[in-house]
Structure prediction request, 359 residues.
Amino acid sequence: MEDAGDADAMFFPELGVAVVTADAAESRSLGTQEEESSDSPVQAVEPDLFMFAEGLSDDYLRGFRKAVETLAAEGGQAAYEPEHEIDPQVLGATWGLTACKVPPSTRTGAGIRVAVLDTGFALGHPDFVGRSIFGATFVGQPVQDLNGHGTHCTGTACGPKAPPGFTPRYGIGHNSQIFIGKVLTNAGGGTSASVLAGMNWAIANRCAVISMSLGAQGVPPQLYYTQAGQRALNAGCLIVAAAGNNYPGFTNAPANSPTIMSIASVDQNLAPSAFSCQGKVELAAPGRDVFSSWFMPPRYRTISGTSMATPHAAGCAALWAQTSPALRGPALWHKLLATARPLSYPPTRVGRGLVQAPL
Prediction:
């Protein structure tokens, strides 16, 4: 992206998508007439979107809980009851990994490339010493994560099997190859352009699993994300994305595209998280009170969101991909659905059910 300078347009060959400045689009008459022309090579012209990390802070959850309790009191409905919080320090693995049957799995993610497109990664994190980490930035900031969100998601998807001391196991694909695409700034925001650039990079590197804990609220499926998701599947890459945290709102972009797997959040009771979006949902995964890596200090943190659910699905996908070279792209998508644990909630909240790791 930095090499492009002040170019009017940038084409992403792996996606079949171009990002064009408004002035350049206008000068070339890219718009309604172009889209309606039968012989035009342009399928659609859609706006760039602001994208944000789909994680929730502890402060947000406390405010959310208070708001729900107030509304319940006014409406005469039962107040939202927080689920029992399990202290991760007394467990061999986090509750999320246990729910996904990760600890008994014999798979490690070895040989599988996992791309996490987010706020970057805390390079030098002591839990990742000796791991090969390939990084690229698409937002004009170093890959180094000064936000924490990307490090947290990477920890769940690819973190160590045996962290030091009394720290529980919080990582799934502990032998996978880690690809970090910084598509969101340290403030936790970005645009579709930066996300598309990261997707193009991940597909070009043939990452079998691409995890995106980000989204834009209140927009319909964008053709460029649908196109990118299909190109990924055709190349043997599976994209999983966060459904969003604005319930009762509907699944955010890009997870609402039919070629991108949408991941909702469940809590320790395996019930839909109060914040998790409804609508197009393929799978559910642990997203409430998730313990994982963070920048130094504090090294670890427990946060919530469909952002936290998504890397659980990505990590399990990496383990499944290791079981067979044939499990790539669409085949991996179908395997995750076929092996999910059914949950007694509407598919619009949990999809096919809770994602599970292979034995």
